[in-house]
Known about the structure:
Blueprint: H1 16-40, H2 48-68, H3 72-84, H4 94-111, H5 115-133, E1 144-152, H6 155-168, E2 169-179, E3 183-188, E4 194-199, E5 204-213, H7 219-227, E6 234-240
Antiparallel strand pairs: 1-5, 1-6, 2-5, 3-4
Amino acid sequence: MFNIEWLNYDPETPSFYVVLLTTLFAFVLSSTIAITYEFTTRSIYRRAHYVQALILIGMVAAMVMQAIGDSLARGLGIIGALSIIRFRTVLDDPRNITFMFASLGAGIATGVLGFSVALTGTIVFCLAAVILRFSPLSNPNELIGEVRLQVPKGDEFKGIIESILHRECRDIELERVRFLNPKRVKSYDENGIPTVEEYSRDNLQEFTYLIKLKHKGSVSALGESLEEIGELDGLRLSFRQRDTKL
């Protein structure tokens, strides 16, 4: 099955030592990419299985390319075999997908004996990831905030609210505007007879904004600025991480 010779490389029957060298080289490059991912990722959702997959998938790609060699029939056969497998793993973060493709690319380049391409590409990719990690593009504050507040009806309040949000936030987006109807609360007296109490909210409107704070923005400063709005009836601020949708 193996042609145990080092110098005479045959794509149809690669020698044992060539396969061993390519697999080990793919392991080193994929491990470098995985270590870079671990070092440059800010999110605390770094699963160990994903980091292991970054290392192993490069070795798998190298083995597949060695198995295909220069044979068109083998390539078509492997494509047909892989099409049977349904991969349903969801990667919500585009950055995670990028690192997975980088590990695949290193493994493919190694599998076709493109060691210089694989090594150069891996080094440049890892350096770029480290540079971006410490650049302004890597914003540590990725929480998406929701501002919900109630003010009297009137077109002038929308401009006042957005001027404050633009001063304190990097990005804002108006998600919803609601005109509040009277609120009815059903209760029971001591005899068990239901009574309905109505609270008038005829003159109120509710705005809901999605926001991103500035790099050195403060939630308390934003809240204090919004509370200065005259006749503010209710204010709610909440922040959470939202997944990127592709």
